[in-house]
C-alpha cells in the first residue's frame, strides 16, 4: 500500500503502477476494494495539488481547474471532506480562500456523516459563517452542539455559537 501511495503521490502511471496494483490486489485482505482505495488516493492527490496551488507553492494558474475537480469528487469519507474544508477555511498557508468550495466540501461531509458528527457540523457552520450566512451558521452550530458527546466539546462549540450570535446581533 505504501509503495502504491508513493507512486500515486509522485505522479507515476503506466506499467509500473499497474504492477503495484496487481501486487496490492494479490496481497490485500479479502474485503479490500482496490477501486475505492484508488479513488481515495486520487482524491488525496487532487487535494494536495489544490492546497499547494492555493498556498502559492504550486501552479496558481491551475487553481480554478483544481477547485472545479475537487468540487466534483464523489468520496463519502466525512472526516476527509471535513479536513479539506477546514484547511481551506483556516490554514494560514492558504493565500486564496475559496469559500464556495469549502462550503461545498463541508456540506458533502455533513451528508456523508448523516449530520451526526459534531466536528463536521461545526466546520459546515464555519463555512457558512465565513461566507456571510450568519443565520444559517447559527442554526448549524446549534446542531453541532447537540451532536457533541462531551461537555468540553459542547462548551467549545457554544463559545463559537456566541461569536456567531454576536455578529448577527442575537444573543
What's the short version?
By secondary structure, the chain is mainly α. It has helices at residues 2-9, 15-27, 34-54, 63-71, 78-90, 99-112, 118-130, 134-147, 151-168.
Topology as a string of helices (H) and strands (E): HHHHHHHHH
Shape: globular
How does CATH name the architecture? Alpha Horseshoe
CATH topology, anyone?
Serine Threonine Protein Phosphatase 5, Tetratricopeptide repeat
Largest sheet: number of strands, sense, barrel closure: none
Overall domain count: 1
Strand content bin:
under 5%
Radius of gyration: 19 Å
Helix content: over 70%
Total helical elements: 9
Query: pLDDT below 50 for ≥5 consecutive residues: which ranges?
Result: none
Task: Describe the structure in your own words.
The chain is mainly alpha-helical. Helices cover 72% and strands 0% of the residues.
Set down the secondary structure blueprint.
Elements: H1 2-9, H2 15-27, H3 34-54, H4 63-71, H5 78-90, H6 99-112, H7 118-130, H8 134-147, H9 151-168
For the structure shown, list the relevant keywords.
171 residues; mainly alpha; Serine Threonine Protein Phosphatase 5, Tetratricopeptide repeat; 9 helices
Amino acid at each position: 500500500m505504501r509503495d502504491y501511495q508513493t507512486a500515486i503521490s509522485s505522479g507515476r502511471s503506466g506499467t509500473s503502477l499497474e504492477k503495484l496494483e496487481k501486487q496490492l490486489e494479490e496481497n490485500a485482505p479479502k474485503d479490500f476494494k482496490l477501486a475505492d482505495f484508488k479513488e481515495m488516493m486520487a482524491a488525496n492527490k487532487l487535494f494536495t495539488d489544490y492546497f499547494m496551488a492555493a498556498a502559492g507553492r504550486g501552479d496558481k494558474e491551475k487553481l480554478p481547474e483544481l477547485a472545479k475537480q475537487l468540487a466534483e469528487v464523489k468520496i463519502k469519507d466525512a472526516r476527509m471532506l471535513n479536513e479539506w474544508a477546514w484547511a481551506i477555511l483556516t490554514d494560514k498557508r492558504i493565500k486564496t480562500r475559496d469559500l464556495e468550495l469549502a462550503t461545498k466540501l463541508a456540506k458533502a461531509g455533513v451528508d456523508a456523516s448523516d449530520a451526526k458528527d459534531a466536528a463536521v457540523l461545526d466546520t459546515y457552520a464555519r463555512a457558512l459563517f465565513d461566507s456571510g450566512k450568519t443565520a444559517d451558521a447559527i442554526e448549524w452550530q446549534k446542531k453541532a452542539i447537540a451532536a457533541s458527546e462531551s461537555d468540553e466539546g459542547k462548551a467549545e462549540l457554544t463559545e463559537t455559537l456566541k461569536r456567531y450570535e454576536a455578529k448577527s446581533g442575537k444573543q
